[in-house]
Amino acid sequence: MTILPFGSGEIIFFGWDWYGSMPPGGPGDNCEDGLDGGWQELLALALTGFEADLQISKVADAASVEEGDEVTFTITVTNNGPADATEVVVTDTLPVSATLVSATASQGGCVGTSPVTCDLGDLADGATATVTLVVTADAEGTLTNQAEVSAANDDPDPANNTATASVTVTLTPSLISGAGCGLGAGPVSGASLSGAWVLALAAWGALRGFRARR
Fold first, then answer.
1. Which residues of the chain does CATH 2.60.40.1530 include?
2. Can you tell me the distance from the alpha carbon of 99 to that of 148, in angstroms, rounded to the nearest whole number?
3. Which of 25, 69, 73, 202 counts the highest number of beta carbons within 10 A?
4. Residue 168, φ and ψ in degrees, nearest 5
5. H or E segment at 14?
6. What is the per-residue pLDDT for 125?
7. For 42-101, what is each residue's pLDDT tens digit?
8. Whether this model's pTM surpasses 0.90
9. Which overall architecture, per CATH, does domain 52-170 show?
10. Contact 116, 100 (CB under 8 A)
């Protein structure tokens, strides 16, 4: 049995001289119809040996927040192998309803605001890396954030290369200040006002759920 390295570039192919033949295309190669059985099997093993199955997950630190609050998303990247992954990159495009506060990675670094791009470098077989994003929830509704991971390696299962997390954003309770007949200058919430009154709105949605009566 002879192990013969050949080829060029970043990937070195290894062939098993199964039948005493030369590497395909080499001197003495008499294979007219392609690779013989031995070469086919060993080349397949060499190719799969450079694959890295990257898996990404994403969670938020809260299921629901108020408008204007911060949300922390934790992204975890795992290399399920079989090879070490090189040039691992996480890309996260924030929705228009969120503003980036900070982005940190357990290895490498992050740049940009939307998208946020985190270069994690190399990730060994079985290793994990994390990215932590802190954003401000800017609008009422559902804040949905998606991240994806890629690498220089071929990935045998690209279906697990994206992850999404969602947070419900509710309106911040507003304070309404009233002044008039029988009213003090302090904040009033959810009250019926009578007499001459002046309302100062603390937020654009302050009148939701509030009934003012003169």
1. 52-170
2. 19
3. 73
4. -85, 130
5. strand 13-16
6. 96
7. 555 555 558 999 999 999 999 999 999 999 999 999 999 999 999 999 999 999 999 999
8. no
9. Sandwich (2.60)
10. yes
